[in-house]
Amino acid sequence: MDFTTILIQLLNSVQYGLLLFLISSGLTLVFGIMGVINLAHGAMYMIGAYLTYAFVDWTGSFGLALLLGLPVMLVVGIIIERFLIDHLYKKDHLFQVLLTFGLILILNDLQSLIWGNDTHGVPIPDLLSGSITLTDTMQYPIYRLSVSAICLVLAVAMYWVIQKTRLGMTIRAGASNREMVESLGINVRTLFTIIFAAGVALAGFGGMISAPLSSVYPGMGDSVLIICLVVVVIGGIGSIKGAFWGAMLVGLVSTFGPILIPSLASVMVYLVMAIVLLVKPRGLFA
Amino acid sequence: MYNTPRSISLFLGILFVLMLCYPLYGDLIFGSKSSFYMQKLTSIIILAILAMSLDLLVGVSGLVSMGHALFFGLAGYVLALISPEYDAANIWIVLPAVLASCAVLGLIVAFLTIKTSGIYFIMVTLAFGQMAYYFFNDSDFAGGSDGLYIMMKPAVMLGDLQLLNLEDKHTLFYVCLACMALVYLILRMLLRSPFGQVLVGIHANEHRVKAIGYNTTRYKIVSFVIAATLAGLAGFLAATQYGFVNPSQLGWHTSGYALMMVIMGGAGTIFGPALGAFVFEILHSFFESFTDHWLMLMGTVMICVVLFLPNGIGGALLKLVERFEKKNKHIQTGDNDNG
User: Fold this and answer.
1) Directed axis angle between helix A142-164 and helix A3-34, to 10°?
2) Which of A14, B148, B239, B329 could, after both became Cys, cross-link B76 (CB 3.0–4.6 A)?
3) Which of A47, A76, A41, A49 is nearest to A224 (CA)?
4) Paired residues of B244 in beta bridges
5) Do residues A8 and A137 touch, judged by C-beta distance below 8 A?
6) Is B337 within a domain?
7) How many structural domains does chain B have?
8) Under an 8 A CB cutoff, do A267 and B135 touch?
9) ipTM of the prediction
10) Is residue B1 assigned to a domain?
11) Residue B74, domain member (yes or no)
12) Rounded distance, CA A121 to CA A212, Å?
């Protein structure tokens, strides 16, 4: 491997890692604050991707598709929280797993009912369709760089909201002692709805911006869910910081792993997870 | 919880006898479809074994595994890999080998996961199940996503004498039925034993059991290994029946269905998850018979069970019997207190 190849793979792994962080942060946020495990998180990613496909098809503009898609994701999140998740806060995790598993079956089937079982491509928006030249023969697509930039901006924004704003303060307080926050007169129920909808929107947004990269196909949410679970387990459940480093680690391993040890390509990230579990059973940052 | 009420035992006994006699009346009721239904019944019985083995973890020990299908599928793969290609394998060799490999892998997975608890355990078992899924899905030696075929069913021989012919559908049906009864009895015995009582204690309050001086980690590992081995038995029977094994049998959807059977039937009752397997699969076949979008209906059923029937069919039955017995007692003693 020469230097440019390594650089390109490094950029790829950072981009993949940042995207994974964006999606996993929603999962870990919802768990860390609300104590709810949402297995349908991957299905939200899939819905986001399919909405982008449908809206780009309809409006012809990627930007408009994002603008139309995000509110839809928020509404989906609010509906699911109000009608289903709301019944599960006091119940065992087992029931959260089963209910959201049932939700996956329904959403996957709805997807095939509405959009069929074909694979669809979403064109890269014109504005970001070029490449930058690294050397005479090597280029790197601008869209991938933009995805990294968007994810980084969102990561910083999330950090800022959680650490510096009043909403973030309430969220952190709610995570460490729910009853206390409630007794201070803060409406935790509304807070939870907001957080869950934000988690869903994060997954959906991840699906939207990765649609031009990975194409849109049935069952695309399942593999994303599993890899996000690995990220969250490595980083420590409920820790945003953990999700970030877990995602970067998984990004690196799944990009460089197959190049270095091709025979273990498919199980590499799981092996990393097993090693982390042996050393730190509760994840790196829990 | 540990002693099944007599009326429920009677109900289960009747169901069992009904299944036992199926070959006698199957032709009369279902005509030409009778043989098809018997195969269906065989496959449900196998899933009932899987569900009961998962109940040892979920309902008894309180370990919610979302990767239990790992052992179900692994058993099939081991059987396919060690069977000779064009010859029947010797069941006295392959069955112990299959069960042992499930036990060993169960021990490894348990060793890595058992220190975690609650949601962590769910996620980690799910991830390990998927690791196995991708391992077999991407492997050349195991046929990739197509899986492997088992051309000849294992031979049950004693010297030169053929004891059972598993190629015969009736024989296989009875073998599976016997295995289901055996697994049920084993699990009930286990539950009554001091070992099982410790597991129940761990489920209720692990700190207390630890404080009394039990090494709870060791107990949980043993329970995981036993459950993995029994799931391996189910996987062995399934692979024998279908004649093939593929990655989806150890994927997390299969694990999710198994978990659903446990909850639908009633976790911790052992007989419940077996009932759950029957109800789940009968619903599945029923939905599949009139729509391609049966998954949507199954998903809806799952959500409804979680919201409206969290104790499952077994839980509802137990409650019904309890209420009925209370009423009876009141009548016998002339007590007219309705509270």
Assistant:
1) 30
2) B239
3) A41
4) B149
5) no
6) no
7) 1
8) yes
9) 0.88
10) no
11) yes
12) 7
Task: Report which of A222, A225, A209, A223 is spatially closest to residue A53, judged by C-alpha positions.
Answer: A209
Chain A residues closer than 8 Å to B128 by CB: 270, 274
Residue A226: list chain B partners with CB under 8 A.
126-127, 130, 252
3-state percent breakdown (helix, strand, coil) of chain B, nearest 5? 75, 5, 20
For residue A113, list chain B residues with Cβ-Cβ distance below 8 A: 293, 296
Six token digits for residue A206: 């991840």
Question: What pairs with residue B179 in β-bridges?
Answer: none
State how far the Cα of A205 lies from the Cα of A70, in Å rounded to an integer: 7
Tell how far CA A28 is from the center of its chain. Answer: 10
Across the strands, what pairs with B158?
A: B161
DSSP bridge partners of A214: none
The chain B residues in contact with chain A (CB within 8 A) are 58, 64, 66, 112-113, 115-116, 118-120, 122-124, 126-128, 130-131, 134-135, 137-138, 252, 256, 259-260, 263, 267, 293, 295-296, 298-303, 305-307, 310
Query: The domain that contains B155 carries what CATH number?
Result: 1.10.3470
Q: Hey, are the CB atoms on A266 and B259 less than 8 Å from each other?
A: no
Tokens of B108: 């490894």
Sequence-ordered list of residues with C-beta below 8 angstroms from that of B131, at least 6 positions apart, any chain: A267, A270, A271
- CA quadruple A41, A44, A45, A47: dihedral, nearest 10: 160
Residue B286 lies in domain = 6-332
Residues making up chain B, counted from first to last: 339
CA torsion sign for B218, B223, B226, B228 is negative
C-alpha distances (whole Å) from B1 to each of B188, B268, B326 are 11, 8, 17
Run means of pLDDT, 10 residues per run, chain B, 339 residues: 76 90 83 86 95 94 93 94 82 92 95 84 89 87 84 79 81 93 94 92 90 91 96 95 91 93 91 94 92 91 92 87 81 54
